[in-house]
Please model this.
Amino acid sequence: MSHSISRPLSRRAALGTAAAAVPAAVLAASGRAAAADEPRPVERIRAAAEVGRVRLTWEGEAYHPLVDHYALYASRSRDFTVGPDTLLTKTVYASFLHDRQGGHRQDWYYRIVTVDASGARSEPSALVEGHSAESVALSAKPIARVGKYDHRSLGFALAPAGYAQYKDRFPNGVDYTYGTSKPETDWSYIQPGPADGWAGNRESSTTFRFNLDTVPAETWLSIWLIDTHATLPGSLLISANGTAVPEVKLENGATRGSLEGDATVPGTLLKPSYVELALPRAAMRKGRNAVVIRKRTGSWHVFDALGVFAR
Amino acid sequence: MRSPLPARRSFLAATGAGAAAFALGTGHAAAKETVGGKVPADPFTLGVASGDPLPDGVVLWTRLAPRPLAPDGHGGMPRSPYTVDYEVAEDAGFARVVQRGQAVASPELGHSVHAEVNGLSPDREYFYRFRAGTELSPVGRTRTAPDPASGPAELRFVAASCAAWYHGHFTAFEHLAKEDPDLVVFLGDYIYEYGITGTNMWREGVPLPGPEHAVETTTLEQYRLRYSLFKSDANLQAAHAAAPWVFTTDDHDVQNNYADDWSETGIAPADFLRRRAVAYRALYENLPLRAASLPNGPAIDLYQRRRWGRLAQLDLLDNRQYRDKYPAGQVVDDSPERHDPRRSILGDRQEQWLYDGLRVSDTTWNLHVTGVVMAQIDRTPGAGSTFSNDMWDGFPANRDRLFSAWKRHGVANPVVLSGDIHRHVAADLKATWENPASATVGTELVCGSAASDGDGADTDSSAKVWLANPHVKLYNARRGYLRCRMTPTALTSEFMTVPYVSRPGAPLATAARFVTEAGRPGLNREV
Model:
């Protein structure tokens, strides 16, 4: 996974965002309620590239004056107008994950307006450029896949909400062989963790078997998830033919993916996340290979797709 | 029965009174002045309220919002300050006005007004109203607390909690408003942060609010809008206009299960504090709180001690802002970490403040107002034990320290008021939870929800677990409120219910009545 910090570009004029003045006498009488400051644009905006998304962070005064929210404006075009048509989101946080961009790299341009408790708006921040990272699922040569990399879990067994049947349908976990197994019957949309009472409060495992005609220079594993548990996402213990890779701590999700399976629905609460890593070359071999994913901590995660790719 | 509230009537144009108060809604004294232009028509759509009764005054509240559901959260008000006049009278007809003043409704505070009125007489009823331009507010009724040294014959209070507007009609508030109480104690979850959609909109006969209400509240404009939506309910407005309120908070005023700067959805602490700041700001703007509770960034001073003569001390506690997070990451468990003696639901400073206040208490009753259940509730009675770490059960060392303070200081008649669970529950507080024969050291009254969880029923699937704890004497899963009469000799508590809230007009019933005798902690059931 590559990360880059984009360079801030020159500040541009605010368009229709001039803040009306608050009478000085009122501000003087306001005590803690309102500082004499008008809201200021945020600074040090960073745009980190991740698969399927851009992670934006910035810095700015939060409390004096109290920030109601930051209005984020975004466009695929560098020369864009700050206005209702380019409003991406409003957030009170000093960060935003611009996600659901799919696996192909996308380039974006951002400006941020600070809106305070009185409704006053700062001028827009400096223009910042960012982009999402290209997924190996789209840029590398596929070897074996299950799922469509489409931010949906709907094609898998038990999807979208049959988690309660996992214990009976997959008592020993999932053991899936690419080429012979079927996604709709043999690959559970959900993999539980020991925090899940409905799955017996025990460790689970998912095995993905595939053949290699030759061992590529780089063998990449790409796992897209449509959601994880909000407080106990847990970690993935991944091994390739018995050789472990470093433990992958999952991101907190929204605890919705166990019940709904489409993260492309407008307004969905689902929080997709992505795990992409190179498998150890020494562990890969010609012929039959197996990747095992064990869940020994936390709660469940829900798959969008899993695949092995050559690069 | 006191006289009914009068209809809106002409405001006495006498704003030149010497008691003018003027400063961004806080009611602090300042020179007479008028700011703002023409006030938009019908600005009092969110009603009026009073709160925090002291022997010599109360805080009066309103918020100018001619279009309360304007999506930007500013209620349809221009981004300018406006002068609001208020007056307080001894009679419902405003023939005997005793206070007049001014406050400024500013855009920084969502055009809310918090006018702190002083110089009133103790233990008596007053009426109040506001004027903005030529617009007059509805009339509210309030009352002052008795003189601290006096011995009141009674305190008649009602308690309410958990008012999920979208889960049902506020029929409980409709009945509550007719109780003519001295005081309303609100126990948390005045709003809910969840998005309101067709899935959770169970209030029949009311259109689904617009898309700006369909997402979880995180920004100030969203929290403001959520308060506006809930406070647009006429029954809630009537309950506010009927009596002064005091408050504790719980989690949904900010986010489900939050603990200090910890969010269960993994929001980074620095970001979550920004959200907490706007949630607390909206809470202040929409409740009758004094300027002392005006938030400073992500901090709000909410815990406080009040007194009803020599009859009762009320310790209003803040059980969210300073609490430790889950001991081992789980809501329900019995982890060793749960028993860490350093764990606190109140935080060190509030704990010490509480014990210091209890040490010198000289009242007949000592009310502890807290958002979540204090009694130990074993969730897996029988083999093994588990407990909810979201309640006081997550902080057994803190609870033990409190009970020790009661014993050490000889605190008279501790009574705990709590909410959170949407169920009416009554429990004896035990010296040793596992031994039903051990001393009962206090009494807990858990007030069910006003609307949260919809219609409900007398019992439900959780009743068996709760009632398996032998100190639990009542479990009822209907909506309603708690009605109490406290005298120097007894506390009578009645758990009031309505059979449905999905549609309006439900009748009121008494699900249970208990008497707690002064000097003899615990519950004696009458009904």
